[in-house]
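If you are new to this repository, start here. Below is one unmodified record pulled from the training split, so you can see the exact layout before writing a loader.
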Amino acid sequence: MSDINANFAQKILSKVKIYLIIIIILSVILCIYDLRWIAPAIISNILIIIYTIWENTRKKNELVNHIEEITMDVSTASKSTLVNSPIPLILIETDGNIIWRSKKFTESFAGIEINTYLVPIVKEIKLDIENRGSQEFLKQFNINGKTYQIRGAISKSRKRDRRKQKEYVLILYFIDDTKYNELFDKYTNSTTCIGIATIDNYDDIIQRALPEEKIEILSKIERIIIDWAQDTGGLIIKNERNMFIYVFEQQYLSKMEKDKFSILDKVKEIETTSKISTTISLAITNDGKNNYEKYKNALSSMDIVLGRGGDQAVIRREGKYQFFGGKTLETEKRTKVKARNIAKSISTLIQSSSNVVIMGHKNIDIDALGSALGMYRLTKNLEKDCKIVTEPKGDLLGKFFEELISIPEYNECIINEEEAIKIVNDDTLLIIVDTHKSSYVEFPSILNAAKHKIIIDHHRKSPDFIEDCELSFHEVYASSAAELVTEIIQYAKENIELSLIEAEGLYGGIMVDTKNFTFKTGVRTFEAAAYLRKFGVDIIKVKKWFQADFVSYNEISDIVRNAEIIEETIAISKCNREDENTGLICAKAADELLTISDITASFVMGKIGDKVTISGRSIGDINVQIILEKMGGGGHITLAGAQLEGFSLEEAHDELIIRINEYLVETRG
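And here is the target side for that same chain:
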């Protein structure tokens, strides 16, 4: 207030000084012309100065009084506004001491032990002040069943000498957001979700079921799907012979999650005299600006589900996928007709390209390299320039790679990343084998550089699949990528003669991925192996390439010996080795653990640099792919892997235990 008064007084005095100076100057001029005016001028100026001082003092006092009245009115209005604020308001210290509260605050929280809510609020705000230097705050808290948006700022700060710590006085506004949140939830719950349901083995039912049983089986499946949709008040329409489109409100989505899509089990429980397994797949999403976008996203989600073997459901939200089910082992579904069509399409794409580059996955193994060699021979047979880009590490390829590069032709066709980048142009065709994940290709730079791509893979489809491919031969029912490539060669129009090393590489890929033809084999697996034998494959020689040496065998024995057993049938162990061959040792040890009686699943982990690699194996009772997928990995029901960055072995072990328990809770209901 004193500052305001001083400013006004200063302005008044400044104007008076100017007027007096002008009068004095005029008086002096008058006296110079006539000396008789000196005495009257002096007297007049003195009187004028006295009057001016008196008058200015009076006016200044009037102005000051007027300003004080206005300020008092404003201050009173401000205080009245705070006291009678329609928003609950409080002044509180960060030690929990309440200095003042508004009338509305008292009314809003009457009958509530408000201190129990205020203490954690001010503690959190104090931490923000000390850690982030925050001066203003916006928090959300639930108080007695209502949601409040708490806004505030620091009013002042002071030190407590006794405790030698700084306390702050906060002014906090409590805005009741309960109705807004209820309205927002109501709006969100009423938004549309689009779902697609597919009968996985429709063709099997049509081809294998007894004539009188076909309609009965399909009608039972349709009835289960329709009843399930009606429980949520949704609309379901049969779009194709084996596909349904389902529209419903989002409020029912959480109910489906809690139910864990039990509809999958209901369909599998349908009994058939023909012993046909009945399964369905579901894809649901709320992603999209409009219903058409949601429908397109549901279709792409269904592609992922079917690429994982079907018999499962997926929910896509904000670009992320949540999977349910997937407990059934994949069954062979592809046909020779499809293999012929794929072979023809691949040949056409190769012929229309300027050159071909073939690439596998990180830590390339015999399945990837054998598949690459098979595609190399097909490309060379079509008289196109072809290179295989890889930089093998460790002993995953055994002695096979040493023998391969000893042959001049293959030593020349196998190049590194730097050389490959130089030959990739707008018309280059990139063939990716044994992976479909953009994060798992051996050289992402080459993936990004190539405009035309083909994928040949057998792993269950992952959300980070490579998009914009010219062709994707993705068969989750195959034992290996080598099996798929063998079929392409076998059914290609061109008469392709594989060299012995190429045939042995393909055979080795099938043999290693099937664990000597014991896991995930089908009729087509043995047909592919028989076809490769025609080229003179020496089975004993191939087996010797991948035999463990004496030191490695002892390491594997130690890992098996030190394994811990959880849930009576799951073995977990650690590999103490820490080099580029750790992954291979872990995989072999996991295989070895599975040969022990009563062990249905095994996990072995080891350290490679700053990553922990985990190999998972199962006889089929436990889906190791779902468990390791929760940790960023993938694979198949019986064979999967994952790599964790920034984890110690102990942390990875604890995380694995958590994920196994989650899986067991989900599957046991």
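Two things worth knowing about this chain: Residues 112 and 144 are 8 Å apart (CA to CA). The first helix runs from residue 2 to 33.
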